[in-house]
Amino acid sequence: MIDETTSKHSLSVSDAVDRRQSTRGYLDREVPIDVLRDILARALRSPSGGNLQPWHVYALAGQPLADLVDDVMAKLPTAGFGGDGDFEYAVYPASLGDPYLNRRFRAGEDLYKALSIPREDKARRRQQFVENFRFFGARVGLFFYIDRNMGAPQWSDLGMLMQTVMLLATERGLATCAQEAWSIWHKTVRAHVGAPPQLMLFSGMALGYPDPEHPTASVRTDRAALDEMVSFRGWA
Ligand SMILES: Cc1cc2nc3c(=O)[nH]c(=O)nc-3n(C[C@H](O)[C@H](O)[C@H](O)COP(=O)(O)O)c2cc1C
């Protein structure tokens, strides 16, 4: 039994890791500010090289979140997925080869299959992508920024913070979806959250109560086998 209003949670770390999945369908249920503050306060215990704590987080709900969504929806017909342009970083390397390309393809196909959207229905696939910019209906939108003079090690620190947020949310019966997609709207997001120019948007994150009836709720992405990913030395 998960009680999100107190700090008494019964999910083990292993269960939270197992249960967390990128969630793309949410209930229209408010996330109390105390619950969100508790998640973020605890997540700030995440490790970072030299304890730089190089992260900056902006959280939106209610009208400010609705205003951002409305702004992006109004811009989409002309801007399309070019977003604000002048992308600040490339989400994927230009030459994404296998096995990475195949994994990316499979994750997409599994999602569209759950939604019964065939490959040739480009319009509905685009529409599903647009759902990113409604936070898939989640009542909280988080934005993770990093100082633009930080390098790869600090970007990795930011990832640790994000995963910790996602696990703490899972522990409280909430769900999340990290969203690099928001990086295409970096100027629009900046205008809404008030981030200074020195900060760079890495990723958004939808956070809310999951809709167990949503067609994508059952999507469980696969993973490469342990021995494909990890080399063990020194054991008999
Ligand atoms: C940093 C990061 C950014 C992501 N950006 C997006 C995104 O923009 N939109 C989306 O639908 N999923 C996004 N995802 C979710 C991944 O597709 C997902 O983590 C992956 O397919 C594995 O599935 P799982 O999270 O359900 O285990 C992102 C994940 C991470 C870690």
Could you explain the architecture of this structure?
Residues 18-209 form the Nitroreductase domain. Its cofactor is FMN. This is Nitroreductase. Belongs to the nitroreductase family. It is built from 8 helices and 4 strands. With 236 residues, the chain is α+β, with helices and mostly antiparallel strands. It has a domain at 13-92 and 134-214: NADH Oxidase, CATH 3.40.109.10. It has a 4-stranded antiparallel beta sheet, with helices on both faces. Helix 1 crosses helix 6 and helix 2 packs across helix 6 (152-171). The protein starts with 12 loop residues before the first helix and ends in a 7-residue tail after the last helix. 26% of the residues are buried. Bound molecules: flavin mononucleotide. Flavin mononucleotide (FMN) binds next to strand 3.
Structural class: alpha+beta
The named CATH superfamily of the domain at 13-92 and 134-214? NADH Oxidase
Overall CATH architecture of the domain at 13-92 and 134-214: 3-Layer(aba) Sandwich
Query: What share of the residues lie within helices?
Result: 25-40%
Bound molecules: flavin mononucleotide
Biggest sheet details: 4 strands, antiparallel
The unreliable regions are none
CATH topology of the domain at 13-92 and 134-214: NADH Oxidase
* Number of helices, counting only DSSP H or I runs of 4 residues or more: 8
- Strand fraction band? 5-15%
Kindly report how far apart the N and C termini lie.
41 Å
Q: Count the strands?
A: 4
The average pLDDT is: 95
Can you tell me the overall shape? globular
At the first level of CATH, the class of the domain at 13-92 and 134-214 is Alpha Beta
